[in-house]
Each structure stands twice: as C-alpha cells, then as structure tokens.
Specification:
The chain has eleven helices and six strands. By secondary structure, the chain is an alpha/beta fold. It has a six-stranded mixed beta sheet with strand order 1-6-5-4-2-3, sandwiched between helices. Strand 4 (133-137), helix 9 and strand 5 form a beta-alpha-beta unit. It starts with 11 loop residues before the first helix and ends with a helix.
Length: 211
C-alpha cells in the first residue's frame, strides 16, 4: 500500500502534475513541448495515461487555439457539463463567451421534427454565431459528423475543433472524419474522451493565457 502524502490544499494540483511527469518519465514518454500542458491536463482529469499515446494535434494546434482565444473567439460545447467545466472568466477576459445549445427549446423541437440528434441541430445553431468558434465536443459523435458535413458542403468553416466524444457508436469514425479536414483540431483517437476531457483541453489552453 502506498503511504499517505501530506500535501497542503493549495499544492495538490502541483503535486498531481509532478506525479504525472514522473509516470511519463518511467514510461519513457516525451510529449511535444507545445502539446505537453494540454495532454498532461487531460491525464490529470482522467488519471488515464493512454491519452499520452492517443491525443492527436494538427500542426501548431495549441498556438492556433491560443491565438483564437486572444482574438475573442467563442467556445461551443455539446454538453452543459463541459460548459460548466470551462473557465469562463478567463475566456471572457479576452472577449469570448462559452455556449451550449443542447437544452434550448428550439433545438429540441427541430431535432424531433427532423428526427436527428440535438447535437446535430446545436452545431447548425452554432454556425450562426458571427465570430470565430472553437467547438469542444466531448459526448456526441453526431456533432462531429454534422460539422464535417457542413465543412465538406462549403456551408460553414469552424475555426477550431476539439473532438473527444466518448462511446461506441460512430465515435471512432467521427473523429477520423475531422482529422481529414483542413480545420485545426485536437482529437483523441479511439473510444475514450468525455465532457470532462473537452473542458480540460479548453482550460489547458486558457490557463496558459491567464493574466
């Protein structure tokens, strides 16, 4: 049994990241410098070191996401859980706002009428935001599928996609679809992910920018 460590409340997160660094070193995993804060925060959120191997980033993804936030981009999530987890204070300090349209009455009504998921309609609604949008998808692969459809049909171009839905049905191919586009992305390959992971990725980027 591992001994209990005495760690001051304010030092718990710091100690957690020290342990993550130690574990990665033991596994002989060296993360690219730009990606390191994001991947480590995902591991911190999930306690799952598989993410060190499965997180995928388009070229200069983290720097592009940071630049978008600095210019006031909004973030749209596919769950209220992810929305709740994002540090909206930091985002607002750069003129950005976080949204989730999944519980909106018009979204629910249109989804029933068209017999599609609310995530599909939410992505369409988000496309009407008249500023750059970072999409943070942690639950619904149909959100990624709809984004891909809008991109390939030339109807909409997201500024950035964080694609980490969790599950079994269409999750893996939906992620792969996004990686085939020219939109900058952070994707976790495979079945793992979740709203907590989507929020963690957003926060890892936001925390690097806090004043």
């Amino acid at each position: 049994m591992n001994p209990i460590e005495f760690v001051l409340p304010g030092e718990i997160e710091k100690r957690s990241f020290e342990i993550i660094s130690e574990e990665l070193e033991k596994r002989q995993i060296v993360l690219p410098k730009e990606q390191e804060p994001v991947t480590k925060r995902v591991i911190h959120t999930s306690a799952d070191f598989d993410y060190a191997e499965t997180m995928c980033y388009s070229d200069h993804a983290v720097e592009i996401a940071k630049e978008l936030i600095l210019k006031g981009a909004d973030i749209v999530t596919d769950t209220n859980m992810a929305l709740a987890g994002i540090n909206k204070k930091i985002l607002a300090s750069f003129g950005g706002e976080a949204h989730c349209f999944m519980a909106d009455l018009d979204v629910a009504r249109l989804a029933r009428e068209r017999q599609v998921t609310r995530a599909t309609i939410s992505m369409e609604k988000a496309a009407a935001i008249e500023k750059p949008v970072i999409f943070a998808v942690g639950n619904a692969p149909t959100a990624l599928i709809e984004l891909h459809k809008m991109i390939t049909e030339g109807r909409y171009q997201p500024a950035f996609i964080i694609g980490v839905p969790v599950g079994f049905v269409n999750v893996v191919p939906a992620k792969e679809l996004i990686m085939e586009t020219e939109v900058p992305y952070i994707i976790n390959r495979g079945r793992k992910g979740g709203s907590n992971v989507a929020a963690a990725i957003c926060n890892a980027i936001l925390y690097q920018l806090r004043r």
